[in-house]
Amino acid sequence: MSSSFVVLSEVPIAPADAMRALEYLGLGPGSEPAVDAPAPGDVGTPGALRVNVVIPARLTRPMMVEVIDRLGLLDLQGAWDAVAERVHPETSQRPTAEEVLASVSKAFTAAGCAVEGRTAAEAPLEVVSAHLAEGCETQTVVVFSDPQLLEETFAQDWAHRLEDHLSATVLHLYPGSPQIGTS
Question: pTM (2 decimals)?
Answer without folding.
Answer: 0.75
